[in-house]
Structure prediction request, 389 residues.
Amino acid sequence: MKRLYLDHAATTPTDPEVVAAMLPYFGEIFGNPSSLHTFGQEARRAMEEARERVAAFIGALPEEIVFTSGGTESDNYALIGGALALRDKGDHIITTVIEHHAILETCHYLEREGFRVTYLPVDEQGIVNPETLRQAITEKTILISVMHANNEIGAIQPLAEIGRIASEREIPLHTDAVQTFGHLPINVDDLGVTFLSASAHKLYGPKGVGILYIKKGAKITSFLHGGEQERGHRASTQNVPGIVGFAKAVELAEKSMPEEVARLTSLRDRFIKGVLEGIEHTSLNGHPVRRLPNNANICVGYIEGEALILRLDMNGVACSSGSACSSASMDPSHVLKSIGLAPELAHGALRFSLGRSTSLEDIDDVLEMLPDIVEKLRSISPLYKKAGS
Prediction:
């Protein structure tokens, strides 16, 4: 049976060229980059070359890039480190209701530590209104965090406009760019961000490595204590193979980005059109245009998302559900609730996220099998029978 992976927003397969670039740093060049001898300095040289490549990719300086273990650590560092560094100036943080849990749970932690957090609403397409943000700013606001694009519904936020507002008020702006880094052009100056989080495994790099961009001169307090690695920002021996792999993934993404954005956007639009026109009681979640090139989040009425996922998996198709924030929870996604979806619709949401391996044939194969799967599940659905359809 042919297997189709349409869950690239969750993670991506590590590119073979990335694996090849990493391999020498597991054996031949294995030194600790903090060591002064040749073994260590060979590793350090590779790490610093990687730092330069990643920095150039987003228009940053090499010394503004801090390597971390991934997006969650970077988000935690930006919020906790930024808030603690500026606590003498205020205690107010602004974020949005649709952020990743790495942001929301960190904000909840900071609230327990005495900070105040404003959670901005979004419209029915998942977009933050910059004017709402402007009005939420107070004299005590010390940090703003707005994601670049939402991981569930793909909505791309007006970050440059938000950046201008933050700059006018001289408030640091953090963005979780985990879903856009390597997939859309990013320039930190154009966006007006002070901090930016990214993770390698979302762009065909290895798991367990990410970055936090920290604008030169920004105030931030380290929350990992020990050695002086990463210019004192993050104690811990660096993951040199992962860092080298991250840089290689960036190199590959940079070469193919314009063509890949156009290709995925075309496939995405074909898929969305095919589902909405081919299956009754379906709707698109998120902005129809201002969305990630590879993201299609669809509500399928009168069916549980988990049942659809299992049936699709039985047919060799991997996607994810928008109906639960974790496998242990049956509550609708906080993102889908935030855009005003009724629980019965939110429970039938599916996220299809395309990638480099996705072909036109793959899209058409899914469009061919999906109506039959939906029809069979609806035939045993009490909700569908109750609706009288």
